[in-house]
């Protein structure tokens, strides 16, 4: 079996760290060719010394640090802002794992699919922004997209070998976030520390805030719409606090397939890297006799209005998903930096979405322009509320 060469964009985040754990388990199957990060210079230095990649890309101010401290002289150190394309475009790269967050993943994602590579994204923002463009380019260049997010991976696995035209419905499961038992009247008083205490997952700061508003699940619905080519009205969000079923698909005959497993990101990561084969993961197995019960309920859409806004945006399409994503990124950043209260995050996003003049069939330049417009408008609104 030929060794697969891997690039990890965002290697110091939770996705990147877990991807390296999977690779370390299968040293004869995978080789790390490139690693990128922004701020965690010490960790990426340790990763580079352990895996000896051909490329390491970090922010410009960190290049000098790595040149002084990195033991291996065979690794080329690059500026992640301006030279990430060199990491992605290496002809020997087979799989590009996208663990970096936010809209900045759009460029390397598009580049990877245009080069016909396999892309394993844990980033939903690029697909929300420009999913139609990405999927069109992937089909044109015969690139394969195998999602790493547990929900999208579950849907991908349930649909494997089946015609997606026969798909009747997707059930997108959600743990419910940290605010299920918190009354909405308290939302304006919630601190950053309280919001970041997710009861089940340890995630990045931005995605944890999105989980609290259920914006994350709304963005995942748009992502699923793009990845699997289904209309928004065939996607339903289900609160499933046990997080045992990672998502489900229903077929016209009434059969429902569910993908179940322990809550460990290494499982969908390993599946994406070893696809279409499956190998022992070395992780704990599910014990059905200890599960007790599995519960399901509808989300409280009045308490969490971001969910309905996302489905409305998904239905209208065009440039609106890009604007939604940009406004969300700006509002969440403002909350995390103490410039916006939690209860106003949704109000800022809604105001920008309603103000936007939608472009029906946006090209890439339209997407980028809409993204810039939404960020500027969001900053102005944030300053005034």
Concise description?
The chain has 385 residues and is of the alpha/beta class. It has helices at 14-25, 41-51, 60-69, 80-89, 106-114, 125-141, 150-159, 192-195, 205-213, 215-228, 266-274, 288-291, 306-316, 320-336, 345-355, 364-384; strands at residues 4-9, 30-36, 55-58, 76-79, 95-98, 118-121, 144-145, 169-174, 235-239, 245-250, 256-260.
CATH topology title of the domain at 4-145: Rossmann fold
Taking pLDDT < 50 over at least 5 consecutive residues as the criterion, the unreliable ranges are none
User: Mind telling me which CATH architecture of the domain at 4-145 this is?
Assistant: 3-Layer(aba) Sandwich
Secondary-structure element order, as H and E? EHEHEHEHEHEHEHEHHHEEEHHHHHH
Strand content: 5-15%
Helix content: 40-55%
CATH class of the domain at 4-145: Alpha Beta
Q: Rg to the nearest angstrom?
A: 20 Å
Which structural class matches the secondary elements? alpha/beta
Number of strands: 11
Which characteristics define this entry?
single chain; 385 residues; alpha/beta; Rossmann fold; seven-stranded parallel beta sheet; four-stranded mixed beta sheet; globular
What do you see in this structure?
This protein has 385 residues and is of the alpha/beta class. The protein has a domain at 4-145: NAD(P)-binding Rossmann-like Domain (Rossmann fold, 3-Layer(aba) Sandwich), CATH 3.40.50.720. It is 46% helix and 14% strand. The chain is built from 16 helices and 11 strands. Strands 4-3-2-1-5-6-7 form a 7-stranded parallel β-sheet, with helices on both faces. A 4-stranded mixed β-sheet has the order 9-8-10-11, with helices on one face. The mean pLDDT is 95.
């Amino acid at each position: 079996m030929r060794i697969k060469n891997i690039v990890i964009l965002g290697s110091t985040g939770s996705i990147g760290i877990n991807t390296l754990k999977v690779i370390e388990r299968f040293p004869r199957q995978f080789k790390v060719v490139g690693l990128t990060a922004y701020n965690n210079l010490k960790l990426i230095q340790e990763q580079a010394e352990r895996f000896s990649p051909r490329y390491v890309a970090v922010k410009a101010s960190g290049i000098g640090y790595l040149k002084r401290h990195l033991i291996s002289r065979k690794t080329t150190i690059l500026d992640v802002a301006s030279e990430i394309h060199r990491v992605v475009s290496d002809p020997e790269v087979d799989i590009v794992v996208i663990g970096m967050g936010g809209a900045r993943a759009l460029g390397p994602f598009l580049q990877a699919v245009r080069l016909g590579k396999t892309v394993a994204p844990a980033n939903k923002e690029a697909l929300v922004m420009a999913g139609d463009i990405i999927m069109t380019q992937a089909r044109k260049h015969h690139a394969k997209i195998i999602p790493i997010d547990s929900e999208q991976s579950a849907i991908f696995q349930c649909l494997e070998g089946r015609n997606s035209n026969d798909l009747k419905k997707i059930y997108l499961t959600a743990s419910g976030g940290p605010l299920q038992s918190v009354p909405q009247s308290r939302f304006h008083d919630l601190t950053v520390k309280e919001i970041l205490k997710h009861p089940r997952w340890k995630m990045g700061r931005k995605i944890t805030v999105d989980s609290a508003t259920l914006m994350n699940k709304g963005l995942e619905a748009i992502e699923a719409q793009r990845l699997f080519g289904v209309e928004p009205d065939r996607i339903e969000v289900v609160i499933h606090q046990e997080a045992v079923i990672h998502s489900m698909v229903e077929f016209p005959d009434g059969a429902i397939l569910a993908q179940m497993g322990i809550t460990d990101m290494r499982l969908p990561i390993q599946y994406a890297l070893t696809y279409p084969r499956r190998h022992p993961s070395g992780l704990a197995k599910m014990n059905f006799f200890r599960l007790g019960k599995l519960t399901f309920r509808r989300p409280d859409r009045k308490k969490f209005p971001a969910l309905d806004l996302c489905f409305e945006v998904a239905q209208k399409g065009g440039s609106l998903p890009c604007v939604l994503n940009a406004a969300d990124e700006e509002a969440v950043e403002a909350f995390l930096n103490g410039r916006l209260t939690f209860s106003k995050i949704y109000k800022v996003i809604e105001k920008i979405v309603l103000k936007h003049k939608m472009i029906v069939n946006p090209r890439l330049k339209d997407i980028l322009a809409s993204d810039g417009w939404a960020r500027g408008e969001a900053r102005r609104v944030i300053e005034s509320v």
